[in-house]
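Write out this protein's structure.
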Amino acid sequence: MTKPRSRNVDVLGFRYLGAHEVEELADLWGAQHQQHTVTAPHLEDIISAVSLDESWRRRRAQYLAWLRDPDTMAILAEHDGDLAGYAMVTVRESAQGSWDRGERVAVVQTFAIDPDYTGTGVGSKLLEEVRRQLAATGIRDIEFSALATASEDISFLEQEGFRPFVTTMVSRVDGFGAHD
C-alpha cells in the first residue's frame, strides 16, 4: 500500500554510495526501467526492451564500472527512512568544440525518483545536491538526457534551467531509407 505523501518534502537526507551499496538502487532502477518502457513505445520496432532482471543486471554492472572512477557520484535521497530517489553522475573530459564548456563535464547517467515521490520536490532537491557537489569541483556544465517522449521529464528539466542541446537519433544498422 502506498503511503500518502505531502505535496512538498521539506526534509531530505543524502547519502553517497560506494560500489558495495549499489544493490540498494535495484528497486528504484526497476521503477525507472518500467517508466522507460511505457514512455517510449515508438522505439519498439527498432529497439527491443529487455526484462527488468536483465535491465538491472546490465545497469548494476555499469554502475560498478563507473564507481571505479573517484569522480563518479552515486547520491541517494532519503525521506523518513524511505529511498526517495537517486542520481548516478559521471564526469568526462570535455571535447573542445564550438562551445566553451570547461575542461570537464558532468553527465547524469541515471536520475530516478520513486513514483510515490513524484511532484513532492524530491527531484529538485536531489538535483540541487548534485549541482552543489559539482560546483565544489569546478565543473560548470551538466548533461542530462531524457527520452524524447517523456514530456514531464523534459518540462522538469526546463524548469530546472536545462535547455535542449543535442538530439540523439537511433536506428538499426540495416534500417536505412524511407519506410513506405
